[in-house]
Structure formats: C-alpha cells, structure tokens
Amino acid sequence: MRLAGKIAIVTGAGSGFGRGIAEAFAQEGAKVAVADIDPVHAREVVEAIGDSAISIVADVSRSADVAAMIERTTRAFGGLDIVVNNAGVTHRNQSLMTVTEDEFDRIYAVNVKSIYLTTLAAVPELEKRGGGSIINTASTAGVRPRPGLTWYNGSKGAVITLTKSMAAELAPRNIRVNAINPVIGETGLLEEFMGAPDTAETRARFIAGIPLGRMSKPTDIANAAVFLADPASSFITGVALEVDGGRCI
C-alpha cells in the first residue's frame, strides 16, 4: 500500500473530490480524518471507509475549528503526515458585477484563508513526523479563467501562488506543498459553475473545451492526490498539477 502508516486530513471530504481523495487514501493504507462542515456527509464517508477513518465537523474558515481539527486528528491517530486543503466554495456563474460582498468574502475565507489557518496549525505537527505533504485543491480557473466566475477564479489563482511560495519556504522543513488543478467536474457544485441547469446541452457546451471529451471525476483527482502524497513523489514540490483532460493546453 502506497500510504501505509500515514495519517491524513482531508477537508471538504463529505462529498465530491474530497470524498474521493479520503476513500483513495484509506484504500492505500492511510488513516484519514474526514473533515467537513456537514456532519451527516462526513459520517457517511466514515461509514463507507470503516475503522481507519474519523469524522470531524469543521468550518475551515474559522481558526478555532481548524485548531480543533488538527488536535483531534493527532489525538486519535498519533500524528499527522498529509494535509489536503480541499474544501472550497464558489459563486454562481454570473456577471462579476452582481456577486455580493458576502459571497466574495465567503469564497476567499473558504478557498484562501483556510489554507493560511491550516498551515499555521498543521506545520508543527508535520515537523514532529520529520516532514510531510500538503496538497491544495486549486483549479484550472486559476490558469485559464472563464468569464462568469471572476472572483472564484481569483481565489484559485491565489491558491496556486500560495502553493508555490509555501513549497519554497517549507522545503527546509521537509514539507512538500503541491496543488491539483481540476477542470470542471461531476460534483455538487456543477450547476453553480455552469450557471445553468445540469442538462446534456449545458454539459456539452463545457465539455467542448476539454480535449479528452469529458468532465473530471472524483477518482481522477483522488489518483493525483495519492501520487502527490506518496513518498514516491518525494522530489516533487511547488507543482500545480493540471488534471483537466487537456483544458489548459
């Protein structure tokens, strides 16, 4: 098993990409803290995984929740090796002029501030284990932004820049930091990203810009996360890996 003996936290793990990552980590031998703002979804994922997982209710934009998330994980499993900052939100696809201030603030709190908070809380624990891996879920939106998602696009551009800067600064501590850039995917946020009902016609419009001819799936992102967490990728840091079917070509 590629992650045998490793201890991981995955945020936003109650559904979508996060659930796929948590389940893949467990299949590869890791103990996993399934963190999500929705307690029902978090418990469902833990029930599917079994004894190697625990559920944690956390709003990753709140420092107290993040500190408690790290503390509970290390108390339950004895340490921390991998952190996946996957929790994210968006605004509905619309004019940049009509997104509310509250929506803007929530996007940057969940997509960007959470990485700051999790880093402050997790790095000391990763150091106790001799280093570790931090993986941030960014987006192709931070590389090739689409109109209609401007403020979300900016948050993911920030995640990519943070990833590279964190990688450079944390390398002396043997902590690797990488990002994954998914293309639009089959998750609960799909209609928000499309800004229209999830119909075959709407999907076709978005898929037309993806050379491999489909949207991303949780398994695609999970496979990339396993690779970036695996000690086999120990010389890879500061990468924003595009898992996008060629969208960013």
Could you explain how this protein is built, in words?
There is one protein chain. By secondary structure, the protein is of the alpha/beta class. It has one domain: Rossmann fold, CATH 3.40.50.720. The chain has eight helices and seven strands, in the order E-H-E-H-E-H-E-H-E-H-E-H-H-H-E. A seven-stranded parallel β-sheet has the order 3-2-1-4-5-6-7, with helices on both faces. 47% of the residues are buried.
Task: Write out key terms for the chains shown.
7 strands, alpha/beta, 15% strand, globular, 45% helix, seven-stranded parallel sheet, Rossmann fold, 249 residues, single chain
Provide the fold topology.
Elements: E1 7-11, H1 16-27, E2 31-36, H2 39-49, E3 53-57, H3 63-77, E4 82-85, H4 101-128, E5 132-137, H5 150-170, E6 175-182, H6 190-194, H7 200-207, H8 218-229, E7 240-243
Parallel strand pairs: 1-2, 1-4, 2-3, 4-5, 5-6, 6-7
In brief, what are we looking at here?
With 249 residues, the protein is of the alpha/beta class.
The secondary-structure class comes to alpha/beta
Q: How many discrete structural domains?
A: 1
CATH superfamily: NAD(P)-binding Rossmann-like Domain
- Name the average pLDDT: 96
CATH architecture: 3-Layer(aba) Sandwich
What fraction, in percent, of the residue positions are helical? 40-55%
- The sequence of SSEs as H and E is EHEHEHEHEHEHHHE
Uncertain spans = none
Largest sheet: 7 strands, parallel
In one word, what is the shape? Answer: globular
Strand order of the largest sheet: 3-2-1-4-5-6-7
Terminal-residue CA separation: 33 Å
Quick one: how many beta strands?
A: 7
